[in-house]
Amino acid sequence: MNTLHPIREADTDSLEDMLSMLLDGAVETLDISPDLYDTAVRHYKDVGTWLGLHESPEYKIYSQGSFLLGTVVRPQTPTGEYDIDLVCRIPLHKTSTTQDDLKKRVGDQLIAYRSWKQQQGHTDGPASLEPRRRCWTLGYTGFHLDVLPAIPDDDHRPHGILLTDKNLHKWQHGNPIGYADWFSARSELSHALLEKRASIADVPIWHIRSTLQRLVQVMKWHCMTYFADDTDNRPPSILLTTLAYRGEDDLFTALRNVLAAIPDFIERRNSQWWVANPAHREENFTDKWNEYPERRQAFRTWFGELTETMDNLSRMHSEGLDTVYSHLTKSFDSGPLQHSFTRYANRMKNTATQQRMSTTGLLSTTSVGPRRRPQTFHGQHTDARD
């Protein structure tokens, strides 16, 4: 997935441009590839078609979370499988079912779906099917689908839902479509800024990442790296996404401004820590902080480390690419950064070579035809496994 940036000569890149390009190029390698994206969509639509034919046409399956928002980041797990969250919405009233019955109802149909695929000799069925705390997980090559059973929330129509949860007695509330609408509106400024700098008419919109989407991906990537050995205390993605509200022109500036503003967005309500779901104000994304104070402290420690890293980087105006890259690797996973650094360094080298050849007369518009603008890696997608 691409983020469009203005194409500039390498020797005029500011520190902010350099850092934005390094971070953007790194997180691009963690994004889901267009082919895998299309495959995932095809599979979950196939599941939805099965449910509609064998249960009820009113069963609806749709994506939620990072897949819907365009903020997917490849997990730092041994398999590196992408986690794609889906909702299976069944038109039932909460008085006519229970959480256990709802989950079993959806699970029985998914079991039948997988069995039918195997009996028919189809090779595109799920390789595995497992029950989780809230959902059912269908395993495929490169990703898995987490199917969350849900029913309509009559008190929060049209998109509110009630969710199952094995560990909780009460129905849980959610509104993934309403949240996606809120996030999309926040992204409009980012897309508007992109359109001012480059034509995106020939680029499919789902292959473009706004600055806001990339900002969320950078925060999630750093958070996964920081909490690699402490996943229980890792802040949920939805919390990071909600706090990342900015729409600045460049990624580095947006990240610094978000970090500066985050403390003001964390409320105290009746002695409770609170970050409200913008699509469901009664839902608190920091409810676990009140139950487990160590999770709030873990967030504060991570937040402080990332803020200090960005502040230190902002003072490196006289430093070169190698030094800036070296400092980034102290806080971020070096693998994606190495890939981004190599591409950016090659771009600088190629641009400098073209400038020298043009100055000496070895390269000119009359000798080689129309001069093309140097390409940046930001306008080209890299397979997430590259």
Tell me what the structure shows.
The protein is an alpha+beta fold. Helix content is 48%, strand content 13%. The protein contains 13 helices and 11 strands. The chain has helices spanning 15-28, 34-54, 65-69, 99-119, 176-197, 211-226, 237-243, 251-265, 287-291, 293-314, 321-328, 334-360, 365-368; strands at residues 60-64, 82-89, 128-131, 136-140, 143-152, 161-163, 172-174, 267-269, 272-274, 276-277, 280-284. The strands form 3 sheets. Strands 1, 2, 3, 4, 5, 6 and 7 form a 7-stranded mixed sheet that branches. Strands 8-9 form a two-stranded antiparallel sheet. Strand 6 and strand 7 form a beta hairpin. It is globular and about 65 Å long. The two termini are 13 Å apart. Mean pLDDT is 84; it is low at 4-11, 191-206 and 359-386.
Write the layout of secondary structure elements.
Layout lengths: L14 H14 L5 H21 L5 E5 H5 L12 E8 L9 H21 L8 E4 L4 E5 L2 E10 L8 E3 L8 E3 L1 H22 L13 H16 L10 H7 L7 H15 L1 E3 L2 E3 L1 E2 L2 E5 L2 H5 L1 H22 L6 H8 L5 H27 L4 H4 L18
Parallel strand pairs: 2-5
Antiparallel strand pairs: 1-2, 3-4, 4-5, 5-6, 6-7, 8-9, 10-11
Radius of gyration, Cα only, in angstroms? 23 Å
The coarse silhouette is globular
Question: Which stretches are low in confidence, meaning pLDDT under 50 for 5 or more residues running?
Answer: 4-11, 191-206, 359-386
Instruction: Determine the number of helices (DSSP H or I, runs of at least 4 residues).
Output: 13
Oligomer: single chain
What composes the largest sheet? 7 strands, mixed
Class computed from helices, strands and strand pairing: alpha+beta
Level of helix content?
A: 40-55%
Q: Can you count the beta strands?
A: 11
Secondary-structure element pattern, one letter each? HHEHEHEEEEEHHHHEEEEHHHHH
Strand content: 5-15%
Mean pLDDT: 84
| Terminal residue distance | 13 Å
